[in-house]
Protein: Xanthine phosphoribosyltransferase
Amino acid sequence: MQILKDRIRKDGKIREGNVLKVDSFLNHQMDVSLFREIGKEFKRRFEGEEITKILTIEASGIGIACVVAEVFNVPVVFAKKTQTKNIAGDVYTTQVESYTHGRIYDIIVSREFLGPDDKVLLIDDFMANGKAMEGLIQIVKDSGAQLVGAGIVIEKGFQPGGDALRDQGVHLESLAIVESMDEKTGEIVFR
Structure:
């Protein structure tokens, strides 16, 4: 998706440790007009698929997932990273490791909002090692729902997450795959 790649090159900042900061438009301050284009592109890439729910993980995937869900005209469910009093009753839970935060989270989805009749599209802003996606896939399996695929805005192609999911047969669509990035020059190469 050229408009996204251009925006990453223009406003993305490469930090030590293979961190690509895109918080000025993607995951802190959100460019909703760009999100609309992202939603349309995911709709195009998953054309013909029956989707009843969008599933993401808190926090930075929620904004994108909401705009994508609007395009698909389906609800968004997001996995919470902490148990709250608002989630009562039975839940699906699994653990995920966050590359960005360097910690392990328990993620939780209420059984009330995901079940065997659902056809689920996973949406997230970033993928590095793919651990968040693996956790969401486990929740979909536990619920008995059908996994339609996964949509990632930015995939770090030099890390193993995307290839691992593709090897498992997941229909994965990444809108921008970063092949390499150089902290010293600021150069970003896309696949």
User: Anything to note?
Assistant: The two ends are 11 Å apart (CA to CA).
